[in-house]
Structures are given as C-alpha cells and as structure tokens.
Amino acid sequence: MATSTKGRPNQGKNGGFSNYSSDNDVRLDNNSQSDSLAILLIIVLLIVVLLFLPLLAWMYTDIRRLEIRVDKALQRIDGK
Predict the structure, then answer these.
(1) Bridge partners, 17 (sequence order)
(2) Is 42 contained in some domain?
(3) Domain range for residue 68?
C-alpha cells in the first residue's frame, strides 16, 4: 500500500483514499489473442474428438462383424 510521508494513504481524484498513486496505475494484460488461440484450439480438439470417436466405434463394430463372418465361414469349411 502506497502511503505518503505522514503515514496517510494518497488521496484519489474524487477526494477518496486510494491504495496506489496515479503514477502507478494497475494495468491488466489485454492480450486477448493468446486467449482466443487457446479457445480455438480447445474447440478444434473437441470437434476432432466428437467426430472421430463415433467413427472409430463404427469401424470397430464393422471389423468385429467381418471377423465373425470369417470365423463362421472357416467353421463351415472345416466342417465339410
């Protein structure tokens, strides 16, 4: 807390006391480009996951059905 030489806080523009002098204004980082990039990356990753999980599930079930057909065909061939 910035104080004057008499131990009292600095007075603000409106006559109220402030915790900082006008020379040392607190400034927030306004770099929204990196935030936008992070949000865009998260959205793209979510889209990729949401598209590829059903695709992978469909491929797995399709391959599994094909394996079952091949196994049945091999059993018929071996049975003859």
Answers:
(1) 11
(2) no
(3) 52-80
Distance between CA atoms of 34 and 38, rounded to whole angstroms?
A: 6
At a CB cut-off of 8 Å and minimum separation 6, what does 26 contact? 20
pLDDT digits (tens, 9 = 90+) for 4-44: 556 655 555 555 555 555 555 555 566 667 788 999 999 99
Residue tagged 């079952």 (tokens): 68
Residues 53/61, Cβ–Cβ less than 8 Å: no
> pTM, whole model, 2 decimals?
0.43
The letter for the amino acid at 21 is: S
Task: Give the distance, in angstroms, between the CA of residue 35 and the centroid of all CA atoms in the same chain.
Answer: 10
- The number of distinct structural domains making up the chain is 1
Distance, CA of 4 to CA of 10 (rounded, Å): 6
